[in-house]
Amino acid sequence: MNRPYAEVIGDPIAHSKSPLIHNFWLERLGIDAEYRACRVAPGELAGYFQSRRDDSSWRGCNVTIPHKEAVARLVDELDPRASSVGAVNTVVGRDNGQLFGTNTDVDGVGEAVTGLELAGCRAVVIGGGGAARAAFAFLAGAAGASVTVLARTVEKATSAARECGLSAKVLPLAPGSGAMDGATLVINATQLGMTGQDSMPDFILRELSAMAQGGLVFDMVYAPLDTELLGAAAKLGLATVDGLAMLIGQAAIAFGHFFGAAPPRQYDRELRERLMQ
Fold it and tell me: Domain check: are 236 and 249 in the same one?
């Protein structure tokens, strides 16, 4: 039997840190398996999954940009969370060739904001796409939270929030919205500020100053790790959480699905150091 493996798929994929994370855990646990990166273009997605169904060594894959929503339509079974979010970031291969889709990004968001009092918080989410849906689903479970969404396409973001069970005010991503006024949590769920993508708009960086003292800014972007958004927040004395927190948190749940073991989280500090190199 060939060596068991899982992988991450996307387009582009070279920037992904998922192989480093999963292979680090596999090594620490002494599991004879591997985790790879595989570039899959949008037109190749259906063919990719057809080939993996017949591969007995394949344990599953993580899914990144731009496939999270499309994959939800290609799996045989969706767990309730993935169904409500409308996006899949983890596909698990079953012994019978069936594909099970789930979304561990929601767990990653929860890990990123651990320690923040969510009941009654005032949150701002930047974005309305697949990554934002994880934030929407998480915040939908926060009792009494007031959520404002800033999005380039208001209609799309409004539908996404509703589908995730979140009641939110959705405003255009434009200056002077007042969304940051008194906010205790800001989440960037876009590619803005990511290497090779558009920069975070200057007005967002300026308007962070209207957040409440003790507020938290969480940026899902992890390449680069120290984004302009987090730098601006730190200068204002706000708490910050980088994209590695979510990346490691969601990977931990996926790892269990793929390899049937809990990852050794006692090595998180060493793992982060490796990821930052």
Answer: no
